[in-house]
Design a protein that fits this description.
2 copies of one chain form a homodimer. By secondary structure, chain A is an all-alpha fold. Chain A has helices spanning 5-25, 34-43, 52-55, 59-70, 79-99, 111-115, 117-136, 144-172, 179-204, 209-236, 239-242, 249-252, 257-265, 267-275, 283-292, 295-313, 321-336, and strands at 104-105, 108-109. Chain A has a single domain, classed as Orthogonal Bundle (Farnesyl Diphosphate Synthase). In chain A, strands 1-2 form a two-stranded antiparallel sheet. In chain A, a hairpin with a 2-residue loop joins strand 1 and strand 2 (108-109). In chain A, helix 4 runs antiparallel to helix 17 (321-336), helix 8 runs antiparallel to helix 9 and helix 16 (295-313) packs antiparallel against helix 17. The longest helix of chain A has 29 residues, at 144-172. Chain A is globular, with a radius of gyration of 20 Å. The mean pLDDT of chain A is 93. Chains A and B meet through helix 5, helix 7 and helix 8 of A and helix 5, helix 7 and helix 8 of B.
Chain lengths: 339, 339
């Protein structure tokens, strides 16, 4: 009997979690488990509360495995790549939380808040190295040549991540950030790792360069859509559900897509933005003001366009229909999510 | 005509510097050079003063290339590995400087002092990724299988680096650190990358596992000796020459080998140590007290023993005598250095 769509997600997630735990165990030092424990806490396996929210959604590894299956491959071959991208993602969260001074991650205190900045920087470094060690395990299932290609794909995505993070930090101090700057930023900060995930899936299925490119492009548009939706939720989402912070992007003055849209289309919104800090009491009024600029519908339409564009990339390159349906649902859920 | 010993060092260092600059250029973002510039500043190519001190001694890449030549290989084949280990070393310095709150590195303000902690964490991450991208270039000159082995060697060394850094940070808060703990620490924090360097050199010369092990062991003892000598200089060296700090390890209360020796062999030294901060005015007196415990001669003897042990590892596995003589001089200079 073929696995149902629900079965596929459950089976993949279980395998990912088991392999993630094995990978992180390598951080253990003889007689001292604390470096490991910091990583395990961040991954949501230690500390309180332990629940699915604390672990995160594991979207990237699911994308690797579903891309591999959809492209006609054996998902087990892509497992080291799936684990590696999730570890890279979590490495970047560990460091971003310090850089952005975030106190909460997935509803719990961040690692730097619990153990201090020095240990948290180092824990991030360890997580990053474990990701690369994990990816080397591809060579047990794939050819050496494909393994080296996979390493290059992941490294290039990581370089883009740091370039994106550099831009993000520098935009905070700039008053002239444009919507074009925004797309440059999220292309590297968010879309790079997601496009690497879907490309690694196809590569693990031994697809040729053209098909790998299609999966890469699928991931890129999906990643952009994901960030646009995140920006949407940063103003119109339920903050309690995201677990990141209880502050609207309007209060933290983050230069997200709807805000940049408002700034480039409304003199009134721009004047208010430039006046100084926005406090919780005036939030409803400023959200209304932003909505009159068309920012809300623009942001929603962008996310929808990007998802449609992403799915078009896969026309003709899905060999396993069941896996494709799961992948498609995942993509659509990303922009319909409430958190 | 064969290259002289001086020629060899000069030729290798020039090639390393050129390739390092090429590698770091990849951090450039279209229209924005600042991420690159932070890395180039740290590497000693930008900012003031620009001199050989600002660049550091490039010991690790020299060890890679000299190990390759000594083992009978073509040093050009090992160049990507040489560049990669230097980038890894500099990544660890960028993060260690934040974690240790160091204001000076090689006589100049540290990156985090100039650009702030968030950008400095991210610059370190970028340096680290460039190291791994660089190592992938080995596949242009070596087999895929050897390239994958090299990646594994470097990743394992990096994991040890982070484990060592975790221990170093945790020892700061402990009062029961023993000399055994010290060896565990420096084995991972200092010796791991140096032993990876010499092993990568031999591997790039296509040596078999036994010879690679000999070079690895050579590097390990050399790395331990290097750290012991660093500890010696932290008390008896000329602080102005090291460019790191103008404070004795006695003032910063770093748990180095001579200090741990003093603590485990002298009640008087231990009592003074436990009394509280040591100020500059009483330094000469406390150094004298430490010397009466035998800490100075113990530390010197340890460094000498370790260098002899290191060189013994290479008995019978040096095929290129000129390169071997340069490698041997480098090893001996490491423990006779004044800075």
């Amino acid at each position: 009997m073929l696995a149902s769509q629900e079965d596929i997600t459950r089976i993949y997630l279980t395998a990912v979690e088991t392999e993630l735990q094995k990978a992180v165990k390598q951080a253990n030092i003889s007689g001292d488990t604390k470096l490991h424990d910091m990583l395990a806490y961040h991954m949501g396996w230690l500390g309180k509360p332990i629940n699915s929210e604390a672990r995160g959604k594991r979207i990237r590894p699911l994308l690797v495995l579903l891309s591999c299956s959809t492209a006609g491959g054996d998902w087990m071959q892509a497992l080291p790549a799936a684990v590696a991208v999730e570890l890279v993602h979590n490495f970047s969260l560990l460091h971003d939380d310090i850089e952005d001074k975030s106190h909460l991650r997935r509803g719990r205190p961040t690692v730097w808040k619990k153990w201090g900045i020095p240990q948290a920087i180092n824990a991030g470094d360890a997580m990053f190295i474990l990701a690369h060690l994990q990816l080397l395990q591809l060579s047990e299932k794939l050819t050496h040549s494909v393994t080296l290609q996979a390493l290059e794909i992941l490294q290039r995505a990581c370089l883009q991540l740091t370039q994106g993070q550099y831009l993000d930090l520098s935009y905070e101090k700039r008053n002239d950030v444009t919507i074009d700057d925004y797309w440059t930023l999220i292309d590297s900060k968010t879309a790079a790792l997601i496009s690497a995930s879907t490309e690694l899936g196809a590569l693990s299925a031994f697809c040729d360069a053209q098909v790998c490119d299609a999966y890469r492009n699928f991931g890129r548009s999906l990643g952009l859509a994901f960030q646009v939706q995140d920006d949407f939720l940063g103003i119109w989402g339920n903050a309690a559900l995201t677990g990141k912070s209880n502050q609207s992007d309007l209060i933290t003055k983050k230069k997200t897509l709807p805000i940049l849209f408002g700034l480039s289309n409304s003199v009134i919104f721009t004047e208010r933005w430039n006046q100084g800090p926005i406090v919780a009491g005036e939030l409803d009024e400023i959200i209304n003001l932003l909505e009159t600029t068309g920012a809300k519908s623009f942001t929603q339409a962008k996310a929808n366009d990007l998802i449609s564009q992403a799915l078009r990339e896969l026309d003709g390159v899905h060999l396993n229909e069941t896996a494709y349906q799961v992948l498609k649902s995942l993509a659509l859920n990303l922009i319909h999510r409430q958190l």
